[in-house]
Design brief:
The complex is a heterotrimer of chains A (502), B (328) and C (322).
Chain A: E1 4-15, E2 18-29, E3 33-37, H1 44-51, E4 59-64, E5 67-69, H2 74-79, E6 82-85, H3 97-102, H4 116-129, H5 145-158, E7 163-167, H6 175-191, E8 195-199, H7 203-209, E9 212-217, E10 220-227, H8 233-241, E11 260-269, E12 276-281, E13 285-290, H9 296-303, E14 309-316, E15 319-321, H10 326-333, E16 335-338, H11 342-346, H12 353-358, H13 362-365, H14 374-387, H15 404-418, E17 422-426, H16 434-449, E18 453-457, H17 461-467, E19 470-475, E20 478-484, H18 489-501
Parallel strand pairs in A: 3-8, 3-9, 6-7, 7-8, 13-18, 13-19, 16-17, 17-18
Antiparallel strand pairs in A: 1-2, 1-4, 4-5, 9-10, 11-12, 11-14, 14-15, 19-20
Chain B: H1 4-10, H2 12-30, H3 37-61, H4 70-86, H5 92-117, H6 121-140, H7 150-157, H8 167-185, H9 187-197, H10 199-204, H11 209-235, H12 251-261, H13 272-291, H14 296-327
Helix pairs in contact in B: 2-13, 3-8, 3-11, 3-12, 3-13, 4-5, 4-6, 4-11, 5-6, 5-11, 7-11, 8-9, 9-11, 12-13, 12-14
Chain C: H1 2-6, H2 8-26, H3 33-58, H4 66-83, H5 88-113, H6 117-136, H7 146-153, E1 155-157, E2 160-161, H8 165-180, H9 182-192, H10 194-199, H11 204-230, H12 242-251, H13 263-282, H14 288-317
Helix pairs in contact in C: 2-13, 3-8, 3-11, 3-12, 3-13, 4-5, 4-6, 4-11, 5-6, 5-11, 7-11, 8-9, 9-11, 12-13, 12-14
Classes of the chains: A alpha/beta (502), B mainly alpha (328), C mainly alpha (322).
């Protein structure tokens, strides 16, 4: 008998072309808070999805209270006492807080009708346990995000969950809300016999509340249920990133012509960006670093005209421009965006390679009466597809049939073909095999040497330090720091982290 | 690229073609009069319209939406044409241009409202269906235009190719070729398909998705108006009730043809010739059912069953495409 | 008071009251007993039809076959009584059974295939309507028992027709269903958020089938009520239901994406549509205007609902995750 409530042994999970988890272990002690760490693509979310019954592992075993289990649906996992706390996603927004808490077991009166007084009373109990001052009759959509999240936890408690998985719970909370949340979590563990898996990018939070830590890297354990007291911050960072990570120095010290190509001046947006100032120089790779929820992708989308910019200016070559849409950006200003979500936003999966690679150049290639045929497009995109070594049986291959790496190459190829001056590249290597990854890194450097100016968003610190010339750090929809990259990993990472945690 | 023939065999169109041939054989042997000149001519007139209606719906299904106002729109445009010719004495050629412009305009309204409100085109076109049809009946006082120029009505009853084929069918087939050309060989056609397949990705790739969706609705209006004119020429009069109450009679063929033809209801895929074959198949079955004496009242029942079968097939196909993509 | 203001039916109620007062000031004939009687009849019939659509909207789907089910049940009901001389009660029961079966078919196919309910119910619309025409060969049944005729025409007292009884009971039951039973709440939860309702163990299959079955039953009742009213069973009963069936719930603030319907507001929507239609008649405006008006009302309501939804989203959108 061990005192582990949840134990995952030698879990392996394969996806087409990728081994997301490779003999990973995870052991959660009763009444403890256990941090699950790793960089994007390290396998955290896959592990969580196995615990919560979304995926089944290919190999390895899962024990709950020392009994082997396998969940075929999230509902089964939930019935077994495992709840994931999302930010707001699992609540029925138009229902009251009380009804949400009691939804699986709504109290009835003698006539078999729902008794809302009892709903309020019963749910109040859980809210009280959490010392939450929320009226159970409040409609969920009227709550703040922070309170919604607390209600999620209350709901998990009301379902008698013994294991709570909190995935980046603080990413949208204010410092005060975060403090309250942590106090609550500690109390729950102490009083309610609950064990918590805590996933976060913010290391100081991990040190603040966690008892043990497991780090994943490339689907393997970089450390397995280590006592938090045996570990320090530097060691943890090393575990997450790995020593063998090579920092390539992007280019020979080019002296930039100190000429701003793209300037954002005191930009405030509808999405909540406050006073954003940044400039991109010609031929530069400007890194945008920040944690999930820092507002980087959102900023780019505002610049592209997808969301509203409330005030401030965008200057291109010192002339003010207004970008109304991505079409505008591409056709008028030669600005392109390689999306982080290639399946949803980057590619049209049901279409073939040729139409995906050529989509950005159709407008330029069209002849009289908008005539365009495959061979015209082919002639234009073929050099780029060849250059990127996309492995596809033919140009008629449906893109969804290709591997992730090749898909990403195509979503890059289409922007190369379009010949943009400025390229926003968002998380270019998430979920991509090592070989393609280093290939893409070289490509980005080559592009910038040829004069393309690039804004690179990545949460992958080594990638950032390898590629960027200058790194802007964002936090809570604000710019919090700027560093010239000297490609020294230790120095740069601590400086950037310093910016974030000030 | 180099193995074209086997590819075609795998397509939905090929299956449809086989079905069409099979049905032609069955009906030719089992019923009298199926191959008679009269019947084939009648068929060609009906199928011409079904193809056009099917195409009009197809271009909206492309966006992942639908157009319930199709029939109301087509009839409104046709009545407008009748008014132009009969009351205003506008020459036929100009009338046709006006009618097509009018249809496109009504389509534009559908598209504009859908795009601007972000409401599903179902409810938008449900409302505009009622509005278009209401205005039409109000303005025409539910009266038909029966004194149309002879040149116009003669065209509708013209018989070509040894009196087997109506010129209306030729218009529809030509329209198919034009649409095929647009979707296959033009910048704009490709953009329409891309916008329908994945609006987010298309938008981020520099395509104005809203504009594309409006174009689709306009094209739908254009084709529905064309169908309206063709029906007017066929009947020899513009009658408010020629597509049933609210134009609802057009709805089933409108969905049947593209769905049978392999157009995905979720959008992003067009099959012009599939839609054409689908329309032919529907017309054949319809005609065959009459000929084998199923009783005209049961025909609707069978068409409903066929639509159900078609969407189930559509579903199976989608399922298998997903399967395929997981494999490699 | 502020809680009251937030309710969907509150604003509508005010519009109804002021609208009626205004109309009756201009045309006192509006509140004549006969006019009220006609108004109540039209409200009664449309109420059931609107509820039949509303419950499908609640789960985020749509049912085009509402009218076809109503029509099929109407002619079966009358046919059974006329051709097979069946007595009223068994005929009603069989009518309900047919509605139930039709709804079950809609729900079962929709949930098992995952195809949009729109297309499934479009197909079944033609199937049910085809059966209707196939059976009747487009001829009405005229032989209706006196009791049925009486129920359709007689008044309880004043201008109040007997016919309102069933729609009122149905409205009350629907309110209880959607507000006080787990089934109704689960339907709304499902319409709100399919994933999270499945996560807590709400069965999609069950919810979708139940909703369609109830919709079918209500459509069946609607069809039979029309028979009572018309005193005959014609095959075209239900042909014109589609538009008003969507109009009332949408005017009542229902969101077509699902998860938000309001029984009282839907009922008010029905009354509003009926009053406007009636007023147009009284003001001697071309009846075809009703059609146009209905179309514009749907658009307007959709705009308003959309705007409210947008504001609601806006409130919590700031600081959503990446």
């Amino acid at each position: 008998m061990s005192d582990y409530i949840l134990e995952l042994n030698n879990i392996t999970k394969n996806f087409p072309g990728v081994k997301a988890l490779d003999n990973a272990n995870f052991k959660l002690k009763k009444k403890s808070i256990h941090a699950l760490l790793g960089e994007n693509g390290a396998g955290k979310s896959t592990l969580i999805k196995i615990i919560t019954g979304v995926y089944n592992q290919n190999e390895g075993k899962l024990f709950l209270n020392n009994k082997e289990k396998s969940f075929s649906s999230p509902n089964e996992a939930m019935n077994a006492g495992i709840s994931v706390v999302h930010q707001e996603r699992n609540l029925i927004r138009r229902f009251s807080v009380g009804e949400n808490l009691m939804l699986t077991n709504l109290p009835k009166n003698n006539l078999g009708l729902i008794d809302y007084n009892t709903v309020a009373k019963e749910s109040k109990k859980w809210l009280d346990i959490m010392e939450l001052d929320i009226d159970p009759n409040t409609i969920v959509s009227d709550l703040t995000v922070a309170k919604m999240q607390l209600c999620e936890i209350a709901k998990a408690l009301s379902l008698e969950s013994k294991i709570l998985l909190l995935d980046e719970p603080t990413s949208s909370l204010s410092p005060q809300d975060t403090k309250n949340l942590f106090a609550l979590l500690k109390r729950l563990v102490a009083e309610q016999d609950v064990s918590i898996v805590f996933v976060s990018h913010k290391l100081e939070e991990v040190f603040e509340i966690c008892d043990e830590v497991t780090v994943l890297r490339d689907g393997k354990n970089a450390c397995d249920s280590e006592q938090i007291t045996n570990i320090n911050r530097q060691k943890l960072v090393k575990l997450m990133i790995g020593r063998d990570e090579q920092i390539i120095k992007s280019k020979k010290d080019v002296d930039f012509i100190d000429e701003n190509l793209l300037d954002l001046k005191s930009i405030n947006t509808d999405l909540g960006h406050k006073n954003i100032n940044l400039n991109l120089k010609k031929g530069e790779i400007l890194g945008l670093y920040g944690l999930v929820g820092a507002g980087r992708t959102e900023l780019i989308k505002c610049v592209l005209g997808l969301d509203k910019i409330n005030s401030g200016q965008i200057l291109l070559n010192n002339k003010e421009i207004k970008i109304k849409s991505p079409k505008d950006a591409l056709e008028k200003y030669k600005i392109g965006y390689i999306s982080e979500d290639r399946k949803k936003e980057g590619l049209i999966l049901m279409h073939d390679v040729l139409s995906n690679a050529g989509i950005t150049v159709w407008s330029n290639l069209k002849k009289i009466l908008s005539f365009l045929n495959d061979s015209i497009v082919y002639n234009k995109v073929d050099p780029y597809v060849k250059q990127l070594e996309v492995k596809t049986p033919s140009y008629q291959q449906i893109v969804s049939n290709l591997s992730g790496g090749n898909q990403q190459k195509i979503s890059v190829a289409k922007w190369l073909a379009s010949g943009t001056d400025i390229l926003f590249i968002d998380e270019p290597t998430v979920g991509i095999d090592i070989k393609t990854k280093s290939y893409l890194h070289e490509l980005i450097i080559e592009l910038s040497l040829k004069g393309t100016s690039i804004i690179l968003i990545t949460s992958d610190m080594p990638e950032m330090i390898s590629l960027a010339d200058r790194i802007i750090t964002m936090k809570d929809f604000k710019v919090v720091g700027e560093t010239i990259n000297n490609h020294n990993y230790e120095e740069m990472s601590s400086s950037i982290m310093g910016n974030i945690h000030e | 690229m180099n193995n074209k023939i086997p590819n075609f065999v795998k397509t939905n169109q090929f299956g449809l073609l086989i079905l069409v041939i099979v049905f032609i054989c069955i009906f030719s042997f089992s019923t009298d009069g199926f191959t008679s000149r009269f019947n084939i001519y009648a068929l060609s007139r009906v199928v011409a319209l079904d193809i056009m209606i099917g195409l009009a719906m197809m271009v909206v299904i492309l966006t992942g939406g639908l157009n319930l106002s199709l029939g109301a729109l087509g009839v409104s445009a046709a009545m407008f044409g009748g008014w132009c010719m009969e009351s205003m004495g506008i020459p036929i050629s100009i009338t046709i241009i006006l009618v097509l412009a009018f249809g496109s305009f009504l389509g534009w309204i559908n598209g504009f409202v859908t795009v601007r409100t972000g409401v599903h085109s179902f409810i938008v076109t449900l409302a505009t269906m009622s509005i278009y049809f209401g205005f039409m009946t109000l303005l025409t006082e539910a009266e038909a235009f029966r004194k149309l120029p002879e040149a116009f009505t003669d065209f509708g009853s013209l018989k070509l190719f040894n009196k087997y084929i109506s010129p209306l069918l030729i218009i529809s087939v030509l329209t198919c070729f034009v649409l095929y050309y647009i979707f296959k060989y033009t910048d704009i056609g490709r953009k329409l398909i891309a916008a329908g397949a994945n609006p987010d990705a298309a938008e981020l790739s520099g395509i104005s998705v809203d504009r594309m969706f409006i174009y689709c609705h306009m094209l739908s209006g254009f084709l529905a108006a064309l169908a309206g004119i063709m029906l007017t020429a066929r009947i020899g009069a513009a009658i408010p009730s020629m597509a049933g109450h609210l134009g609802f009679d057009w709805l089933l063929p409108a969905f049947l043809a593209p769905v049978l033809g392999g157009t995905l209801l979720s959008g992003g895929k067009v099959t012009v010739f599939g839609t054409m074959l689908g329309a032919i198949l529907v017309t054949l079955i319809n005609n065959g059912l009459y000929l084998i004496d199923v009783g005209e009242f049961w025909v609707r029942f069978f068409l409903g069953i066929i639509l159900l079968g078609a969407v189930l097939l559509d579903r199976a196909r989608e399922y298998f495409t997903v399967k395929n993509s997981i494999v490699s | 008071m502020s809680a009251l203001l937030k309710k969907d039916w509150f604003g509508l109620g005010l519009v109804l009251i002021f609208g009626s007062i205004l109309i009756s000031l201009f045309k006192p004939a509006f509140i004549s007993p006969f006019n009220l009687y006609v108004l109540m009849l039209s409200v009664s019939l449309m109420l059931v039809v609107a509820m039949s659509q509303m419950i499908i909207i609640a789960i985020g789907q749509m049912n085009l076959s509402v009218g076809a089910i109503g029509g099929l049940v109407a002619i079966s009901f009358t046919g059974l009584m006329e051709v097979y001389s069946m007595s009223i009660l068994p005929a009603v029961l069989i009518g309900l059974l047919i509605g139930l079966a039709c709804g079950f078919i809609n729900g079962y196919i929709t949930v098992k295939t995952g195809i949009s309910a729109f297309i499934i119910t479009l197909a079944t619309l033609y199937i049910f309507k085809g059966m209707n025409l196939g059976i009747t060969e487009a001829q009405p049944f005229y032989e209706i028992p006196e009791a049925v005729k009486f129920f359709g025409n007689a008044k309880i007292f004043g201008p109040i027709p007997y016919l309102v009884i069933i729609p009122i009971i149905i409205t009350v039951l629907m309110w209880i269903l959607m507000n006080r039973t787990s089934l109704g709440r689960y339907m709304l939860a499902y319409g709100n958020n399919v994933q999270s309702s499945e996560l807590i163990g709400i069965s999609s299959t069950k919810i979708v089938i139940y909703a369609h079955v109830i919709s079918g039953l209500l459509a069946a009742i609607g069809g039979m009520l029309v028979v009572c009213r018309l005193q005959l069973g014609t095959p075209n009963i239900g042909d014109s239901w589609l538009l008003p069936s969507f109009a009332a719930p949408v005017i009542g603030g229902a969101i077509l994406a699902g998860g938000k319907v309001d029984v009282i507001a839907t009922a008010f929507g029905v009354i509003l549509v009926s009053i406007i239609s009636q007023a147009l008649v009284i003001f001697k405006i071309d009846p075809f205007f009703v059609q146009i008006f209905l179309g514009f009302m749907i658009l307007l309501a959709v705009f308003i609902n959309r705007y409210r939804e947008y504001r609601e989203e806006r409130r919590t959108k700031v600081f959503s995750d990446e």
